[in-house]
Backbone:
């Protein structure tokens, strides 16, 4: 999918739309997510379980797991087969780890998760199943390390195809987001890579003949703007694929303003980040041009952002140092052209959207954010989250709030 755009910063807020069809803040009781387990939430694998599927969930990471990083995880086993108990026990076997943590015993770590997945597929070959295998550690800290897993993924796919294990399965090979930190992330291409994660959708060969409309829509949508919300809707369609095929023939449904559109339905060519509910800070459709960092508006924005960060950490002021603006590293502006203004019925532009990168002190933190400047009253408004684009390491070890860890420099 060439237009697959993430909708949030890191793993959890991107995978929640993928698995529930909702933003984190749209979940019931979202304000208490850090202090309650996830057993009662309506995760997609429950729909599959209810429809008679055998379910499996496997992650390599334990401390940084999707539902466990600074959160409570599950009180009860969430799926029929659950890899976490083995992964936790594996972490304790320090003498078995080698090659900077890439190998356990004489095997690459991803090979173990992939073998577990393969064995599950083989055992349940004649039954419907739902699998979520989430492997992150091999590429999380350095995207160049991803190549270490090439052979393991190739071997898994070759074995699965040779054993005819994917003949009745739709395979999604995906990432939740790109590289969020480091020198590459500071580049223009790095910014796009972070916001445009990988998503490959592979139905079985017979699918295109059995469901030609769904296949053609899927191909067309590979060049349309899509998100994790659409993947959730696609997973719902897979549960009732015959029904989805019937609906795909109808022209009566207007998809233009829907947040969630299945990849098996025709996504509008002119879909925008606004209609797809992608917040401006993550949108890759906007065109920006450079602006001088000495511009008065840019300087005001930079100070506004530092004030905003300090305000977020103010309730933890005994733990976090008050940050100061050290340097404005770069600034860009997105301006609508006259044709767009005419189309919107506006004689002149009412606002300007800026994207800036600042460095703060102490800690040398690099932050990127999108801010809207209203031309009339000269007010500023933050558009989405503030991204931390360099590593904070142990700078924020004193605080355990998942959001504030990106911004807090501990008062040591």
Residues:
């Amino acid at each position: 999918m060439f237009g697959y755009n993430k909708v949030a910063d890191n793993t959890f807020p991107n995978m929640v739309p993928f698995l529930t069809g909702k933003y984190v803040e749209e979940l019931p009781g979202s304000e208490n997510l850090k202090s309650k387990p996830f057993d009662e939430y309506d995760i997609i694998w429950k729909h599959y379980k209810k429809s008679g599927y055998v379910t499996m969930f496997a992650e390599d990471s334990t401390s940084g797991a999707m539902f466990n990083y600074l959160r409570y995880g599950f009180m009860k086993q969430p799926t029929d087969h659950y890899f976490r108990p083995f992964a936790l026990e594996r972490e304790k076997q320090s003498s078995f780890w080698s090659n900077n943590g890439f190998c356990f015993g004489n095997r690459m770590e991803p090979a173990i998760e992939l073998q577990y997945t393969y064995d599950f597929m083989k055992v349940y070959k004649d039954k419907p199943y739902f699998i979520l295998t989430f492997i992150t550690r091999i590429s999380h800290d350095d995207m160049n390390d991803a190549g270490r897993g090439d052979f393991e993924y190739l071997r898994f796919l070759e074995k699965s195809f040779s054993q005819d294990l994917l003949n009745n399965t739709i395979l999604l090979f995906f990432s939740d987001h790109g590289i969020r930190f480091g020198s590459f992330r500071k580049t223009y291409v790095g910014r796009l890579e972070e916001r445009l994660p990988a998503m490959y959708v592979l139905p079985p060969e017979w699918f295109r003949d059995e469901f030609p409309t769904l296949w053609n829509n899927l191909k067309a949508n590979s060049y349309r703007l899509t998100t994790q919300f659409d993947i959730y809707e696609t997973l719902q369609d897979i549960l009732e694929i015959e029904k989805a095929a019937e609906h795909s023939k109808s022209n009566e449904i207007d998809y233009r303003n829907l947040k969630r559109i299945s990849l098996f339905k025709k996504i509008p060519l002119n879909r925008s980040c606004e209609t797809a509910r992608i917040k401006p800070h993550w949108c890759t459709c906007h065109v920006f041009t450079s602006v001088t960092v000495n511009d008065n508006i840019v300087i005001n924005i930079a100070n506004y952002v530092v004030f905003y960060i300090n305000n977020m950490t103010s309730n933890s002021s005994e733990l976090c140092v008050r940050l100061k603006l050290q340097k404005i590293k770069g600034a860009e502006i997105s301006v609508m052209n006259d044709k767009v203004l005419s189309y919107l019925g506006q004689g002149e532009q009412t606002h300007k959207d800026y994207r800036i990168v600042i460095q703060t002190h102490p800690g040398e933190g690099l932050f990127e954010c999108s801010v809207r400047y209203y031309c009339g009253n000269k007010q500023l408004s933050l558009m989405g989250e503030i991204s931390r684009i360099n590593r904070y390491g142990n700078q924020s070890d004193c605080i355990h709030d998942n959001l504030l860890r990106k911004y807090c420099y501990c008062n040591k």
Observations:
- DSSP finds 13 helices and 14 strands in the chain.
